[in-house]
């Protein structure tokens, strides 16, 4: 059998201001590491504005900016002390408004990051809660509980922090005695708020309106699968999340879904229905994208029902190994589950929380590998192989139905920086894990713009950047790649330009092909488009048609080499 029509998205309506998000390509700006405008080695709004034309030149539709709010930076800005202002190290509210205006002039929409699961411990609410003491109304906005044991010296339950160690910290009460404990699923500087409290819901609704009124087009929702906790905060009793796959008849399969006391709870969907009403009250409507690490595509699709969120990051795709059978399964599952709720999939290869995909693809691939390379750093890394696979991966990603995300620097072919000195590591995972897990700093190193030595034009000064850059990144700088048709940068520009000009791409149908061999991921899209990715090591025959774009050189014998992708007009 040659072609199999898989469950797929029906063609959507013509793109309008209200539906642009259905097939948008969005560029992620990790602001600390994008560009520095004042020479202090830390990225900021001025730096972003100075390099905004680079993003526009790629041909993307929007940018998503990681948190730029006032913060003590316990977790790189995801510990917010004021949701309606800008961190002074990044600029001012007036700078933010100027950026929004400049982006509109360049045809770029802007999404911000909102962090609703927790605030900073420096937030006025939390300071008030500490000062008010047990039983106070101020503490009801958070999750304070008495400890276990006769003297309350043990945490209230067995929950663990994502960054390592207990998810509870004991406070000193106003009289100086050891007192209650507060919940923080992440760092102690990030206390979880109580989403059963009406003031919490009302305040976040006000924050949405504050930024929407200033022209922000939408929000990425951090830890969207949390917020609500099970009543009584019961022990985990050994439950893990996500659940580990189990072997059945020689294959690793997902176990049946089971409820968890603080991840992916049904009650969270009520929050997002309220938020959708707010977003839909604007003209044009504003949009949301969920960061929801859930067990399976069916659970993810629940966040995307018509009265909830618009899109969600597809982490199953991000974590799928470079293996044709696994990739085909992920694509078919993803498209089918999104179709069931009428939502477009999104496809993402890297972000600020995982190792860069070039370095992941540079290693031997296995299902279940950590996207942070934990436990994998002893596997030999072939960066030339990772580069070939990354070039093929972007053509696959941009050919799939729905939208896509590009993480800053992936258009330059940046690898993970795996040899950062231990004394410069800043991710709280490093400290909370007892200095055993290096964390996410390796994907957050400032990107190179020009020159052959650090800081590669990152800012106006010659001083060091907040994380040190490798000394061999000169050939990867923007200036070194511009105009070189064989560079990663020019491949991204060509692919994004062609995607925008090709009627078959974006939102629409996908028909999987099975006639090109087991090492391929191949599909047709109408009208007249075929994408083929050879994930094996041996060449496979090319389908008949005109080659529009290839990720690497093609031989004269009408075959597709291993680790190469091609777009064909059929």
Would you mind describing this structure in some detail?
This protein is an alpha/beta fold and 570 residues long. The chain is 24% helix and 15% strand. It has helices at 45-50, 52-58, 93-105, 124-132, 198-213, 268-280, 297-301, 315-319, 324-341, 357-361, 383-399, 428-432, 478-481, 488-501, and strands at residues 3-5, 25-29, 62-65, 109-114, 144-145, 168-172, 178-183, 218-221, 246-248, 251-253, 287-290, 311-312, 346-348, 403-407, 511-513, 520-525, 529-534, 540-541, 546-550, 559-560, 564-569. The chain has an 8-stranded parallel beta sheet with strand order 12-11-8-4-3-2-14-13. Helix 5 packs parallel to helix 6 and helix 11 packs parallel to helix 14. The radius of gyration is 24 Å and the shape is globular. Mean pLDDT is 93; it is low at 1-14.
How would you summarize the topology of this molecule?
Blueprint (H helix, E strand, L loop, with lengths): L2 E3 L19 E5 L15 H6 L1 H7 L3 E4 L27 H13 L3 E6 L9 H9 L11 E2 L22 E5 L5 E6 L14 H16 L4 E4 L24 E3 L2 E3 L14 H13 L6 E4 L6 H5 L9 E2 L2 H5 L4 H18 L4 E3 L8 H5 L21 H17 L3 E5 L20 H5 L45 H4 L6 H14 L9 E3 L6 E6 L3 E6 L5 E2 L4 E5 L8 E2 L3 E6 L1
Parallel strand pairs: 2-3, 2-14, 3-4, 4-8, 8-11, 11-12, 13-14
Antiparallel strand pairs: 1-15, 5-7, 6-7, 9-10, 15-16, 16-17, 17-21, 18-20, 19-21
